[in-house]
Design brief:
Elements: H1 5-8, E1 15-21, H2 29-39, E2 43-47, H3 58-62, E3 67-71, E4 79-83, E5 88-92, H4 101-104, E6 107-112, E7 115-121, H5 131-151, E8 157-162, H6 186-196, E9 201-202, H7 203-207, H8 223-226, E10 234-238, H9 240-245, E11 246-252, E12 266-271
Parallel strand pairs: 1-2, 7-8
Antiparallel strand pairs: 1-12, 2-4, 3-4, 5-6, 6-7, 8-10, 9-10, 11-12
Helix pairs in contact: 5-6
This protein binds one DNA strand of 15 nucleotides through loops.
Length: about 270
DNA sequence: ATGGTCGACTCTCGA
């Protein structure tokens, strides 16, 4: 089977679903819009759109033939799904009794062509001793409950987004030095693992078992990008029936080298009929 | 390589 996405881009009946942390959608339109057109992606899940709903750049996406579903707030967080076809059952937040406005700006879900998509921006956590880290760990527990509820609908599930966890040693550039980082600490890695163990497959690792490719490079130390020292914290996780239909899963670094890039990259999964 | 760079929006916070 041909697993090179460059050769499969124009083949019909492949469904392409992608994720991208924008770090402000309005500042990244010059990257997102051409990329959507070039890659012919079916559904693009965005995080950190950093815009209130009333200011969401909806017409920019409608002008190129896409629909947009979004849940934002002022300045921080915010998630959206840009989709070619209309989606069903759009919901926001963790759908539990604790759900806060911030939670609603961190998760948006919906059904795209029979696939239950869950798009998340998991809290970063700040520092191990910060209450924000407990909020992050608890967020994974709540996400697990949401997942189990979605599983009951018997649709294939695709959970993606900036999950703010590098799950394994090969997912971060200096694992031996980062044991106390909130995106690599053992407790958050176990929280990630507990989500996986509910019945999801890490799609990038299915196709690239050992490669040191990353989805995030810190702006603050520019040489890290040049040296390929980053983090694999953006993920596409799928249920087994979707994993079996998958054709490729690739990190697209190219937009990272354009003017005014995000600090994250695109991650794309392709699925056959 | 222990600092540095972004974005939103007031001015400092979050990443």
């Amino acid at each position: 089977m041909d697993t090179d996405p460059k050769k499969t881009e124009n083949i019909e009946n492949i469904t392409k679903i992608a994720t991208f942390n924008t770090n402000s959608i309005r500042s990244r339109l010059h990257i997102i819009l051409p990329w959507l057109i070039e890659k012919n992606v079916d559904a693009l899940c965005l995080q950190e759109i950093k815009v209130e709903n009333k200011n969401f750049p909806l017409s920019e996406f409608e002008n190129i033939g896409y629909k947009a579903y979004f849940s934002g707030m002022k300045s921080y967080n915010g998630v959206a799904i840009i989709a070619k076809e209309a989606m069903e059952d759009i919901r926001v937040g963790l759908e539990d009794q604790e759900n806060s406005p911030e939670d609603s700006a961190r998760l948006i879900s919906g059904i795209y062509k029979g696939i239950q998509i869950i798009n998340c921006y998991v809290p970063q956590g700040k520092e191990i001793e910060n209450p924000s880290y407990q909020y992050k760990l608890n967020w994974f527990t709540r996400l697990g409950a949401l997942l189990n509820a979605k599983f009951k609908n018997n649709l294939p599930v695709l959970l993606c987004g900036d999950l703010n966890v590098a799950p394994e040693w090969e997912d971060v550039y200096e694992p031996e030095k980062l044991a106390d980082h909130v995106c690599f600490h053992i407790d958050v890695r176990n929280a990630f693992k507990s989500i996986i163990e509910l019945g999801l497959i890490d799609l990038f690792r299915k196709f690239h078992p050992n490669e040191k490719q990353y989805t995030f490079f810190d702006y603050r130390t520019p040489w890290l990008l040049k040296k390929n020292k980053g983090w694999r914290i953006d993920h596409i996780l799928v249920t087994p029936e979707l994993a079996e239909k998958s054709i490729f899963c690739e990190i697209d670094m190219e937009p990272r080298f354009k003017e005014k890039p995000s600090d994250h990259t695109f991650l794309v999964g392709g699925f056959g009929g």
